[in-house]
Amino acid sequence: MQGATDTGGGPILELDGLTVALPKGGDRGNAIDGVSFSVGRGEIVCVVGESGSGKSVTAQAVMGLLPKGQLAVTGGSIKLEGREIAGIAQPELRRLRGQRMSMIFQEPMTALNPVERVGEQIGEVLEIHTPLSAAERRQKVLDIMAAVHLPDPASMIDAFPHQLSGGQRQRVMIAAALVLDPVLLIADEPTTALDVTTQAQILKLVAEMQARRGTGVLFITHDFGVVAEIAHRVVVMQHGRVVEIGSRDEIISRPREPYTQMLIRSVPSLHPPDRKPNASTVALSTNKLCKTYSSGGFLAGKRRVVKAAADVTIDVRRGETVGIVGESGSGKTTVARCIARLIHPTSGTIRIGDVDVATLPERRLRPHRKHVQIVFQDPYRSLNPRRTVGASIIEGPVNFGLATADAIRRARDLMQLVGLQPDALDRFPHQFSGGQRQRIAIARALAMEPKLLIADEAVSALDVSVQAQVLALLDDVRARFDLAILFITHDLRVAAQICDRIAVMQNGVVVEAGPTTEIFAAPKHPYTHALFAAAPGRGVRFGDGLEAVS
């Protein structure tokens, strides 16, 4: 983001020594401790750091949204346009939240009411905070929907959240946040789960709104590509404290602090390393794989047919990682679920070794379950919170006939392999960090000694440093076990670093496939060009000056 910002005589937001205490028994005394920084008018300040660094707690403290009885401001100052707002009465704080500051949350489907039309949810802010009539409110909602580039606002105003795409739902959240022209906009990981093209649109929209309205933006993210794309200044947090503040270029190219340097070094490059061609045995081969969904019929009216996957042909060899990239709805996960036979393919073949599992009846699928294992995006949802991680890891092998003692020994060995202590088998999922839970999910998958491992967005929700560790782990187990890995991702940086070959999918069709180095160097299909053009921070070389400051 170029150019100086107009602070209009003083910062929009000023934090000075802000401290929020944790309940007794926490891993540290304070969730955030002595946090000080400011956001100027027309300025975008990005806050970065690992999970638990205090980024979201800082945002919640500013908005007055700290969970009651759990977290509370115990020291320091929060000034909005020069006015102290820490500890003010709730009615006044609600007024400020509507009129002077607003927030965009990470997941719009949990922030939007599923049974209320999106126009009503945007207009609710106007109903509470303005004397506008119903007709005037509707017109203002239509105007803000047009301003955030939602298509056909006149029709979409009466839609429900589930009828919109992820990017459109996020635009609705932005519209609701901006409808009263706040001076401060807080965005808490608003693009983490979005495709690169949708993410690029949302980032452009935030920057456009900020420039047009002079809004100060506090943008929380763990994606340094996003930082490179939009930030004026960057605040780096660790363990509840600010460790470094600087301009975008200073933090990205010349970080001073060891922690910041570590984060920058962890950012995956968009330049894939050279990899030797793999001539091993083919572990997975799909040929003209199709999955078609249909709805409607004689009573419901015209039958609607959707080809989620059409004529998909992919090979994955032992010791090789093949990536599938594309936007939401491109068919990536549909293909993976067909291969694992979690859903039934409509036609085509799926060969795991010498067996075509595409047409196997349900009663003959049990042996296939052992050979194909999946690591999902959210390990907390895929691990049973009421069972120890040891019980989760040994469950599969024991069900397939391995003695319990042998399964426990294998689980202990796998815990060491994924970088965790074997003694931790008796602990529960909530006692681990997000990155540790993903390591446990990988260990559970490897316990079955599979021929094919499917990683479905397995690192997309992780911090950049933890992401780097999990990617290194996946690459290690691939080489160690001569494992075939099908890696599904919307993150081109991740695909560049871990995939030997990639297949690009659009609307259920593989539009381009080949060695990762060749496709990144010279993409042929217009859609692939569009994906690469949308990658945030694509022209930035992270940590160019690290050697000079190490």
What can be said about this structure in brief?
The chain is α/β, with parallel strands linked by helices and 550 residues long. Helices cover 37% and strands 25% of the residues. The strands form four sheets. The chain has a six-stranded mixed sheet with strand order 6-7-8-3-9-10, with helices on both faces. Strands 16-17-18-13-19-20 form a six-stranded mixed sheet, sandwiched between helices. A four-stranded antiparallel sheet has the order 2-1-4-5.
CATH topology of the largest domain: Rossmann fold
Report the principal-axis shape. globular
Radius of gyration: 25 Å
Strand order of the largest sheet: 6-7-8-3-9-10
CATH class of the largest domain: Alpha Beta
Largest beta-sheet characterization: 6 strands, mixed
Name the average pLDDT.
Answer: 88
Helical residue percent?
25-40%
Give the beta-strand count: 20
Our count of helices gives 22
Named at the architecture level, the CATH assignment of the largest domain is 3-Layer(aba) Sandwich
Provide the structure class: alpha/beta
Approximate strand percentage: 15-25%
CATH superfamily of the largest domain: P-loop containing nucleotide triphosphate hydrolases
Structural domain tally? 2
Flag low-confidence runs: 1-7
3D architecture notes:
The chain is an alpha/beta fold. It has two domains: 1-100 and 217-270, 3-Layer(aba) Sandwich (Rossmann fold); 282-534, P-loop containing nucleotide triphosphate hydrolases (Rossmann fold, 3-Layer(aba) Sandwich), CATH 3.40.50.300. 37% of the residues lie in helices and 25% in strands. The chain contains 22 helices and 20 strands. The strands form four sheets. A six-stranded mixed beta sheet has the order 6-7-8-3-9-10, sandwiched between helices. The protein has a six-stranded mixed beta sheet with strand order 16-17-18-13-19-20, with helices on both faces. Helix 18 links the parallel strand 17 and strand 18 (484-489). Helix 17 packs parallel to helix 18. The longest helix has 18 residues, at 196-213. It is globular. The model is unreliable at 1-7 (pLDDT under 50).
